[in-house]
Amino acid sequence: MKILAVSDEECPALWDGYVPGRLSPYDLILSCGDLKASYLTFLVTMSRARLLYVHGNHDGSYDSAPPEGCEDIDGHLVIWRGIRILGLGGCLWYHPGPYQYTEEQMRRRISKLRRALKKSGGADIVIAHAPPRGMGDLEDPAHRGFEAFAELIDRYHPAYFLHGHTHLRYEHFLQRELQRGGTRIINVTERHVLELPDPPETVQKNDALTWVTRHRETLDWRDGFSIMKGR
């Protein structure tokens, strides 16, 4: 099974320089945020693969014009072909703007997912926009990672934690992949391909997406405005 993960920078080879059939090998596309809605719509149309996404801090336009044919799993746990996928978009709050959360807000978001994580036995892949604190982040306020994500990894041990936000060209020392325990933390800026074992044939034929969570988040990025303005 091939999974295409994308984030932050539109890939010329998959868009402006697209060649028919280039996206056909992929079974699933995962977006970690900060990409044009039209780009995601193009990817899902040309690949005919399912595309799941979370929001980056520059994706406020998705509120009125979301990517067509794609599925928003931000704040949700879903299962596709036996793979448990958890979505947690947004970055650490650094100034008024969309999809930014304080550490406490992100911990609250994760806390609301505990029942679903227990029900499903955890998550195999986490797709986030920001990295965990100290694992591929930077020291400037806009690009610090979440301590809450490091705690999530230590508690639930997902096989993969995918993120963007810190473009690999920002600093020479940024690495594409890091390891925390048994979790591979991968910066998927622009694009990265994951190859997973194929599920049983009976599972492959079922393309349905199972939503373990069905709640509507009562906490969203707009709460950050009232919290920070009140300081």
Please explain how this structure is put together.
- It is a single chain.
- By secondary structure, the protein is of the alpha/beta class.
- The protein has a single domain, classed as Purple Acid Phosphatase, chain A, domain 2, CATH 3.60.21.10.
- It is built from 6 helices and 14 strands.
- The strands form 3 sheets. It has a 7-stranded mixed sheet, covered by helices on one side.
- Helix 2 (103-111) runs parallel beside helix 4 (147-156).
Task: Describe the SSE topology.
Layout: E1 2-7, E2 28-31, H1 37-47, E3 50-53, E4 71-72, E5 77-80, E6 83-88, E7 91-92, E8 100-101, H2 103-111, H3 114-120, E9 125-128, H4 147-156, E10 160-163, E11 177-180, E12 183-187, E13 190-195, H5 201-204, E14 209-211, H6 223-229
Helix pairs in contact: 2-4
Mean pLDDT across every amino acid position:
91
| Share of β-strand residues | 15-25%
Q: Measured on Cα atoms, how large is the radius of gyration?
A: 17 Å
Compute the number of structural domains.
1
What is the strand arrangement across the widest sheet? Answer: 11-12-10-9-6-5-14
**Number of strand elements:** 14
Structural class: alpha/beta
The helix fraction, in percent, is 10-25%
Largest sheet, in brief, is: 7 strands, mixed
Q: Unreliable segments (pLDDT under 50, ≥5 consecutive)?
A: 221-231
- Sketch the topology as an H/E string, one letter per element: EEHEEEEEEHHEHEEEEHEH
Any idea what the CATH superfamily is called?
Metallo-dependent phosphatases
The global form is globular
CATH structural fold name: Purple Acid Phosphatase, chain A, domain 2
